[in-house]
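ingest -> validate -> predict -> emit
validate: passed (alphabet ok, no gaps, 100 aa)
predict: started
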Amino acid sequence: MNTFNLVYDIVAKIPKGKVTTYGALARQVGINPRVVGFALHVNQNPDRVPCHRVVNAKGMISSGFAFGGPDGQKRLLLKEGVKLDANGVIDLNKYGYFLF
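emit:
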């Protein structure tokens, strides 16, 4: 299994209404967080691999989200019940998923 597939398998396990970070995924796979970002950017199956559930270390959505931009990512997260504060930050203590 290649590195991207490892990333995809982990992301596929993130429950609805939860998020994780690029850094947490990178540590799990043993790669740089930027590689995680690239893998998710070229994700060919967003229905199986819900890359909208991956945010930065501060709990902010990605400005380069490949499936509808940041508004698309925000819309998908809100639909799953994930709330963002007035500054666009997700409470990782409440919504974070780090049990891979």
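The chain is about 40% helix and 5% strand.
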